[in-house]
Amino acid sequence: MENNQSEEIRQTTVNPDTWLKDHGDYLFRYALVRLRDKTVAEELVQETFLAALKGKEQFKGHASERTWLVGILKHKIMDHFRKGTREIPVSSLTSPEDSPEEFFDRNGKWKEQPSHWENDPKETLEKKEFWNTFEACMTGLPGHLSKAFALREIEELESEEICNLLKISSTNLNVSLFRARTRLARCLGKNWFGTSAEGKKV
Q1: Helices (H), strands (E): how many in the chain?
Q2: Which of 24, 37, 86, 118 lies 20 to 30 A from 106 at CA?
């Protein structure tokens, strides 16, 4: 009797027929932010659905269906990062446009104050419009920069783990993160924090 009840719960929790409709867009956006490549993001989401379909009996209902699918997708993304990675010379990562001198004077003070946060930062991060802008800014980053930033700031992996995953040195990682943060700050400052929700200048 107990086994039958467990099977009924599992069947009502996992419904492959609705995965694409209920979770497809979310998983695609999740992958796109991290991969910066629509084609690869679509492929990995498809692979996620296939893997979930094959392993649906392993789903125990301890987490939501979406959380379970995201976990599978995350492993797919990590595997993708492991493939074809190579060390990038630090010289190719540095650029005058990303230099601290662009933002700070000799005394370490802002040359131009950052845009004012009109709303509470927490509320801003919960806005769908903000994440649309953030995704667009991430898409504009070179591949190696977006990978490093996504793994460190979004997935919150330790630096050593990222270096091993991407096969790069700690110096390379630090430079990549600096450039990614600088470019994202510039992009968000121009396309989000410089305007209000209605699109007017703050």
Answers
A1: 9, 0
A2: 118
The 8-class DSSP code of residue 4 comes to: H
Q: Per residue in 106-153, pLDDT tens? A: 555 555 555 544 555 445 445 667 778 888 888 888 888 888 999 998
Buried b (16+ CB within 10 A) or exposed e, 116-128: eeeeeeeebeeee
Q: Smallest Cα–Cα separation from 110: which of 51, 199, 189, 165?
A: 189
Q: CA nearest 45: which of 7, 84, 12, 76?
A: 76
Predicted pLDDT of residue 47: 96
Q: What are 19's strand-pairing partners?
A: none
184 in Cβ contact with 145 (< 8 Å): no
Amino acid 103 reads F
Sequence ranges of the domains in the chain = 2-82, 90-191
* pTM for this predicted structure: 0.62
Torsion of CA 55, 57, 62, 65, to 10 degrees: 60
Q: Is 147 left (phi over 0), alpha (psi -120 to 50) or beta?
A: alpha
pLDDT at residue 89 tops 60? no
Which CATH fold topology does 90-191 show? Arc Repressor Mutant, subunit A (1.10.10)
Question: What DSSP letter does each residue of 146-165 carry, written as one string?
Answer: HHHHIIIIIS---HHHHHHH
